[in-house]
Model the fold of this input.
Amino acid sequence: MLSRIIIVSASALKGSGPLGAGLVQASRSLHTTSQSLAPVPPLPEKGGKVRHGIFPEEIFQLLYPKTGVTGPYMLGTGLLLYMLSKEIYIINHETFAALSMGAIIFYGAKKFGPGVAAFADKLNEDKVAKAQEVKDVAMASLAQAVEDEKKEQWRAEGRSMIFDAKRNNVAMLLETNYRERLHMVTNEVKRRLDYQIALQDLHRRMEQEHMVKWVEKSVVGSITPQQEKESIAKCITDLKALAKTSQATA
Amino acid sequence: MVTSFFDQFSSPLFMGIPLMALALLLPWILLPTPSSRWLNNRLLTLQNWFLGMFTRQLLLPINHPGHKWALILASLMIFLLSLNLLGLLPYTFTPTTQLSINLGFAVPLWLATVLIGLRNQPNLSLAHLLPEGTPLLLIPILIIIETISLMIRPLALGVRLTANLTAGHLLIQLISTGLFVLLSLQPAVAILTGALLLMLSLLEVAVAIIQAYVFVLLLSLYLQENV
Done:
């Protein structure tokens, strides 16, 4: 029974405003789930500022209020002189080896440093550019797809016009075909009729010629020699008469 | 206390505590850890690029089963490279000048390649002992010679690295001592010696890089023969 009271009071406590929520949450441990690790804070873009390649800028800022601008340099010089004079650092052959190696490192850093840094930056930029390109290509293709879809919709509106045009086209084709056939039929019929006419003409002509020939033949055959003599004597008397009349007129 | 030029190669001790482990661990402290971010800072980008390029180039002639060695060869290269280059700084100890360390790298890795070869393809591994096209009479002698050459490989690997680095360091010490002494006596000659020291230092940087690369390259070659 007491446990029930605790449970009821606990749920009442949870809903009872800021203090109540805090009292219940205090038992939960902090920053353990992976949810609290995201989003990860961004990396600093550049490394810590350094002066002369090795000394962090913070030392200079630290000493500035007390010793001004030349403070750290005095510190460095003093330290060096102290170590040399107290023979904490002894100049021996290693110093010269260190100097020559330092010269090589310095020369290398000065000459190839910016090139190498630019190369590293370019590697990163290429990576970003590749990903960006994927995104850009995807976006461009999607925009293109939207445009194409709009065009297709516009095309779909003109559907009925296409159907009408096609219908007209087909009707015209049919008409043309019909006319051609009609023309062909007419030509064929005319040809046959022309043939019949030519045939009849030929018949009549042949009949005519035949008849003429027959008449000529019978006329020529009917002229007997007696008739021929008589006609010739008549012709002579006619001629004489004509000659007399002409002589008389002349 | 009489110091000699070979004191720089003695195993470092500090109040009786050997510091060899520290000397071997130093490169690990200086190299950046790969992170899970997509874009990294310049140092990490360069390291990743270099490792990728190097491993790809090294594993090019090796067939597929040999690609298991990619990690150990790449890490060996980085290790030797960093040890050699760090040893060029003054007052540092270079572990790769110790024959023990170099033989400790060479013998196990070489033996691993030989055993892999003998286990997986014994005929082919033994066939490497006889080059192609040898006259019949020379075969026995040549096999003996090739076996000796095989056995001497780890020694050669280790001693090559040791000798190159030790000689380089010794030369630097000698010439810088000469420069140091000559500076007060004959400054003109000292200038020439200084120039020589500069060029020698440049050579030593090159040698450090090349020797590390040669070590790993030869190991990859032995691997290629046997895998």
